[in-house]
Write a structure and sequence with these properties.
- The protein is an alpha+beta fold.
- It is built from nine helices and four strands; from the N terminus they run βαβαααααααββα.
- The longest helix is centred in the middle third of the chain and has 31 residues, at 96-126.
- The mean pLDDT is 97.
Length: 212
Amino acid sequence: MPALTIDFFHDVVCCWCFNISSRLRSLAEEFDLDIRHRTFVLQASPAEMAERWGTPEAARATILDHWAACKQVSDRPALVNIDAMRSAPFDYPHGMIAARGCKAAERLGGQAAHWDMFDRLQQAHLSEARNVADTATVLDIAHDLGLDAAAFAEVFDDPATARAVKADRQHASALQVRAVPTLIVRETGTRLVNGPREDLAAQLRAARRLAA
């Protein structure tokens, strides 16, 4: 059966992306998938957060309601720490700084480094209630992942990294991607429906048959 390439559009601050990322890791090994990571920032600044959600208090309350729904169907519900984020001493973070961190990691270490950075930032956000819109958090996590601190900081600040985030958004627009997580099988154009691991596996088997 043919190998498949999956474009995975995601945002670090998206709890549903957290659910699907771990499932996709195990499926990538089982199905020999080539996962191509695409940042898709839902809100890119405090101003965009305010435009979308109103007050910081309203943003936190509404988004954490989404977390609660996501936690109910998560394979790892203990890692979704709603209470910690509810009492965090900062406004609910936008996703742009984290997206730049993922793209900086990708530029230094390829797709595997992007995925590791994405997952570790999601853990910081969802489990540890750390501020992923704070550059210091991203730099600290890069160090934890073993990335060279000076090289990472330089690439993180490089305008080309911000352009790479923008290019992902433009690619999403061309494919009419409007939400995350979105998984698209390149060979067939199939969009996988987010759900339990076995549902995703069944969709991948169907996509392989279609691509054959």
